[in-house]
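To illustrate the input format used throughout this study, we show a single complete record. The first block contains the structure-token representation of the backbone; no residue identities are included at this stage. The design step must infer an amino acid for every position from geometry alone.
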């Protein structure tokens, strides 16, 4: 399996994250991608290629132009306002306030487009996000051109980015952009299976009223896990999309036995849907030692996960999402890919 990677991900190197009331070094850090890349080379998974350029058109097929313009200008506006530190959200249009007007002042604008306050914006964030979606699209083209599978080593990740919101370390939704791009290139149906510990609220939001993308997610119960307010089992989709959204929220302490049962059910549904492309939102934060999750998946379980996905016998795009046990992220990420290949 070939991998697409760019060193431009390093441009995203924020120093602060709001975590449990304290500013800490971000769990989502440049070392994640570098350790994965080193493991790919160590096991000789396949060639590593650079990104191609795709411009903003594929982004604007998925995201609101207002969000895109905001992300492009946020850091400059933050600095121009004279604010210190990195751009962190402090105010939102809550349930008791109006959400139909976008402030012109950067602090208010930041809150309008943010879904949470943990993710800061710093210099280089926008450039890294653009490079990350290019990585995803480059790998998508490889699969559309006939390769059985490809791995987009995306950083920053994307599945929390909604049509018009960023957060959860995500700015542009790489998997969603790739799915829409495949449809625009002639695919009739795309399935996205999200194996990240956290629910991909952004991906669900983007495709919730559509039947040409079937979104399935196995994740921590949102009653107890970020993003909290989406990802319940009673969210089947709306309108044309009813029946094309399937969530598998699992409780704390879930091991591979219960997790793989959900995966098998998801794979059966994907098989019946018969998509032209399978996109895997490939997070490995379900790992038992991940610092911000509560599942008990072992490193060797990820090999079996890849094998089960392989049995679908579909053109498959892997798009990197989360995973914050940094020292083990290379082994866990590549185990899924190796299991798929083997």
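Output of the design step:
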């Amino acid at each position: 399996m070939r991998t697409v990677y760019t060193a431009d991900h390093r441009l995203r190197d924020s120093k602060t994250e709001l975590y449990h009331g304290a500013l800490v070094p971000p769990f989502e850090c440049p070392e994640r991608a570098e350790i994965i890349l080193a493991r790919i080379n160590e096991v000789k998974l396949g060639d590593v290629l650079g990104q191609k350029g795709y411009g903003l058109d594929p982004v604007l097929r998925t995201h609101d132009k207002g969000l895109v313009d905001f992300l492009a200008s946020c850091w400059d506006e933050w600095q121009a306002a004279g604010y210190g530190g990195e751009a962190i959200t402090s105010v939102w249009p809550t349930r008791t306030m109006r959400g139909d007007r976008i402030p012109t002042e950067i602090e208010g604008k930041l809150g309008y487009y943010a879904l949470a306050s943990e993710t800061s914006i710093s210099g280089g964030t926008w450039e890294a996000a653009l490079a990350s979606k290019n990585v995803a699209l480059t790998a998508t083209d490889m699969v559309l051109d006939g390769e059985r599978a490809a791995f987009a080593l995306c950083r920053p990740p994307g599945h929390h980015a909604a049509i018009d919101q960023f957060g959860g370390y995500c700015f542009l939704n790489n998997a969603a952009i790739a799915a829409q791009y495949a449809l625009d290139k002639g695919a009739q149906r795309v399935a996205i299976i999200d194996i990240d510990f956290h629910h991909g609220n952004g991906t669900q939001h983007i495709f919730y009223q559509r039947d040409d993308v079937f979104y399935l997610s196995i994740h921590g119960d949102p009653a107890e896990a970020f993003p909290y307010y989406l990802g319940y089992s009673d969210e089947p989709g709306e309108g044309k999309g009813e029946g094309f959204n399937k969530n598998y929220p699992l409780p704390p302490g879930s091991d591979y036995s219960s997790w793989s049962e959900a995966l098998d059910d998801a794979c059966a549904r994907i098989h019946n849907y018969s998509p032209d492309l399978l996109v895997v939102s490939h997070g490995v934060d379900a790992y038992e030692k991940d610092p911000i999750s509560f599942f008990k998946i072992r490193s060797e379980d990820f090999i079996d996960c890849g094998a089960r996905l392989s049995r679908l016998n579909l053109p498959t795009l892997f798009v990197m999402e989360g995973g914050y046990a940094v020292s083990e992220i290379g082994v866990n990420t590549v185990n899924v890919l190796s299991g798929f290949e083997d």
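Structural context for interpreting the output: Residues 35 and 330 are 5 Å apart (CA to CA). The beta strands are 2-4, 17-19, 22-24, 48-49, 149-152, 190-194, 213-220, 245-250, 277-282, 316-320.
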